[in-house]
Amino acid sequence: MCPIKDNKQCCSSPIYKIINARLLKNHKIVEGSYLWFQNGKIIDPQSLFFDHLRDADEIIDAKGQIVAPGFIDTQINGAYGIDFADYEGSDEKIQADINKVAKGLLQYGCTSFCPTVVSSEPAVYQKVLPHLNARKGSATGGAEILGAHIEGPFISVEKKGAHKQAVFRTAENGIKDFDDAYGDELKKGNKAVSIMTLAPELDGVTDAIPDIVARGIKVALGHSACKIAEAEQAVVKGATSITHLFNAMQAFHHRDPGLIGVLGAADLPIPESSKGHPEPSDTSPCRTKPDPRPFYGIICDGVHVHPNSVRIAYYSHPTGAVLVTDALSAMGLPAGTYTLGGRDVSVDHNGAAYVKGTSTLAGSTVTIDECIRNFQRFTNCTLVEAIEAATLHPAELLGISNRKGTLNVGGDADFVFLDDSSGEVKVQRVYVAGDEVKLS
Question: Is the terminal CB of the chain with fewer CB neighbours within 10 Å at N or C?
Answer without folding.
Answer: C
